[in-house]
Amino acid sequence: MPADPVPADPGPADLGPAGPVTAPWRSRVTVAVLVAVLVVYFVLLGERAVMLISTGRPAAVGLGIAVLVLPIIGAVTVGYELNFGRRTQQLAGALARERDLPDDSALPRRPSGRIETGAADAHFDEVRARVEADDGDWRGWYHLAHAYDVAGDRKRARQAMRHAIDLYRGV
Known about the structure:
disordered N terminus, elongated, mainly alpha, 171 residues, 5 helices, 68% helix
């Protein structure tokens, strides 16, 4: 029996070497529910802030203004994180079409499923060397972000991914 042809444009259910290209529907539903809960929380917090401000007492007005700032900060943060996730998925989709998603399946794992530290560090060194050779390629930075994540450094992983996004967008 002949092998099935490889699709030119992977769809949401297609898998790259390291897993799903797009978030499964459960993850998207979870994000939608959490955002909805946050919106309700922000509205309730905003109502309390308006009630405090409307009292006219200086201390309550000051507290109301402070409480009113919290939903604004929360909404901006949620929007920023959703945008980061959307752009990261765009890059993942582009890499999937190129059949170049990061693949850590060959790295040795602990019984817990985490990649062994020495292997993660060696993998990171390989990827970092590739990025240093061509630091203007967004693909390398995406792979570096994945290598940071595998090594357990989420802060640098996010920084590298932001840089990959900027390179992809031409910023």
